[in-house]
Write a sequence for this structure.
C-alpha cells in the first residue's frame, strides 16, 4: 500500500466521552501517515470543536440542525435509512483503508456500510453496550444478539477498559483475540490550579471566593446519577455549610434533577450550567469531582480531574476502579450508597492534606498510564497490524485465483 492510510472516524451525536475520545484520536493520528476524516450525526455539543479541528467532516444527519441535543428522540427508520445511504455512498467514493466506528447506532450503520463498500479494515470502539446490565429484558438480549450479528461485519474491536472487554467475552459477542484494550486519554492538558482559577469560577456562579465546590461533569441522564449526588447534598451541608455543587452538562433528566433539588431545599446550592467548553478552567476551579454513576465503563472525566490534580469521589462501578485507585487517587464507595458518598465528599472537603495527596497521585497516574501519546500510538500499531494481516490474506489468495483464471487451471467437471 502506498501513500497515507485513509481513516474514517465515525460517530453519532457528539456528546460525552465517546465524542471526546474520537476528537482526540482523530486530531492526534500522525498526519504524515494518516489521512483522517470525521463523520458525525449533527446537533451535538462538540460539533463546533470537531469542525474547528481542521479535518474534513461529513455530517450524515444534517436534518438534525445546529445546537445541543436537537435530536430529542431517536431517529425513525426512514431517517436512519437515509443516513446509512449517505454513509455508504461517502465510504464508496472515498476508498478508506480503515473505518473506525463509535457509539451503538452509528457503529451499526458504519460497519455494515463499510463492509458493503469493501473497506478492508472495520474497527468498532466499545464505549459501552446497548445491552448493558441496566437495560431490562428482553431488550438486553435483543441488543446483544444484534451485536453478535454485527460481529460478522467487524474486523476488530477496541475497548477502553478491561471491564468492557470482559463483558463482551462473557456475553459471547467476540473472542478475546478479537478485542484490544486501549485505555482512553483526554484532550485536557496537565495544569496547576491557581487562586485566580478558583475565584473566577466562583464569581461566575455568584459564590463566595472561598466556597467549597463539588462538580459533576456529564450528561444529565439516569446513568450518571446526578440525582444521587443531589440527594447527598443535605448531608454534605450538615458538615460543610458553605459547600456548593455545580453540574456541568445537560440532558433529558435536567428538569427532574432541578425539581429534586427544590424538594430537598438545596436549589440554592446546586447550579446547573449546561454544556461548557472550558472544562480545564472548571476542573482547576473546583475542589473535588463527583462521579456517582450507576454504571460507567471508564469515565474520561476522571482523567480530566486527574490532569488538573483534583481528587475524585464516586461509586466503584464497572470500569471505574481501573481508572480511580481507591484511597490513592480518589475515594470510591459501593454503588448507589448516598450516605457513604456524602461522607467521602465531606472527608475531602474538610481535609486539605488528603485532597492534595489524592490529587497529586491522580496526576502522576494520568501521566504514567493515560497520556495521549500512549493511546494514539496503540491505535497506530493496531491499524498497522490489521492492515498487514489483510494484505497477507490477499497475497495468499492471489496465487490461487491466478491459477483458477489461467486457461486449463480450473478444475473440470466429470466427463459426461
Amino acid at each position: 500500500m502506498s501513500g497515507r492510510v485513509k481513516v474514517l472516524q465515525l460517530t453519532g451525536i457528539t456528546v460525552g466521552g465517546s465524542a471526546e475520545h474520537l476528537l482526540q484520536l482523530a486530531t492526534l493520528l500522525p498526519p504524515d501517515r494518516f489521512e483522517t476524516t470525521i463523520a458525525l450525526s449533527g446537533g451535538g455539543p462538540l460539533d463546533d470543536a470537531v469542525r474547528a479541528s481542521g479535518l474534513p467532516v461529513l455530517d450524515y444527519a444534517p436534518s438534525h440542525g445546529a445546537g445541543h441535543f436537537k435530536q430529542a428522540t431517536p431517529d425513525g427508520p426512514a431517517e436512519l435509512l437515509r443516513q446509512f445511504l449517505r454513509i455508504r455512498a461517502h465510504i464508496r467514493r472515498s476508498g478508506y483503508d480503515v473505518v473506525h466506528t463509535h457509539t451503538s447506532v452509528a457503529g451499526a450503520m458504519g460497519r455494515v456500510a463499510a463492509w458493503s463498500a469493501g473497506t478492508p479494515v472495520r474497527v468498532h470502539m466499545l464505549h459501552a453496550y446497548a445491552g448493558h446490565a441496566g437495560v431490562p429484558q428482553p431488550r438486553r438480549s435483543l441488543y446483544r444478539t444484534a451485536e453478535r450479528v454485527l460481529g460478522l461485519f467487524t474486523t476488530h474491536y477496541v475497548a477502553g477498559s478491561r471491564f468492557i472487554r470482559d463483558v463482551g467475552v462473557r456475553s459471547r459477542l467476540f473472542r478475546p483475540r478479537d478485542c484490544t484494550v486501549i485505555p482512553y486519554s483526554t484532550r485536557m492538558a496537565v495544569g496547576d490550579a491557581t487562586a485566580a482559577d478558583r475565584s473566577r469560577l466562583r464569581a461566575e456562579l455568584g459564590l463566595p471566593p472561598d466556597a467549597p465546590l463539588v462538580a459533576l461533569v456529564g450528561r444529565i441522564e439516569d446513568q450518571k446519577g446526578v440525582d444521587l449526588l443531589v440527594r447527598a447534598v443535605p448531608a454534605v451541608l450538615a458538615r460543610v455549610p458553605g459547600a456548593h455543587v455545580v453540574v456541568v452538562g445537560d440532558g433529558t433528566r435536567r428538569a427532574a434533577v432541578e425539581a429534586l433539588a427544590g424538594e430537598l431545599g438545596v436549589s440554592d446550592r446546586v447550579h446547573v450550567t449546561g454544556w461548557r467548553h472550558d472544562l480545564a478552567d472548571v476542573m482547576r476551579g473546583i475542589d473535588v469531582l463527583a462521579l456517582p454513576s450507576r454504571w460507567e465503563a471508564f469515565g474520561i472525566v476522571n482523567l480530566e480531574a486527574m490532569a488538573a490534580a483534583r481528587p475524585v469521589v464516586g461509586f466503584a462501578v464497572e470500569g471505574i476502579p481501573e481508572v480511580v485507585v481507591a484511597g490513592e487517587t480518589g475515594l470510591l464507595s459501593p454503588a448507589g450508597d448516598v450516605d457513604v458518598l456524602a461522607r467521602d465528599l465531606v472527608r475531602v472537603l474538610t481535609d486539605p492534606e488528603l485532597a492534595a495527596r489524592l490529587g497529586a497521585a491522580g496526576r502522576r497516574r494520568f501521566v504514567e498510564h493515560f497520556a495521549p501519546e500512549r493511546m494514539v500510538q496503540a491505535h497506530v500499531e493496531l491499524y498497522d497490524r490489521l492492515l498487514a494481516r489483510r494484505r497477507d490474506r490477499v497475497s495468499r489468495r492471489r496465487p490461487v485465483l491466478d491459477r483458477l483464471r489461467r486457461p486449463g487451471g480450473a478444475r473440470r467437471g466429470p466427463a459426461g
Remarks:
- The two ends are 46 Å apart (CA to CA).
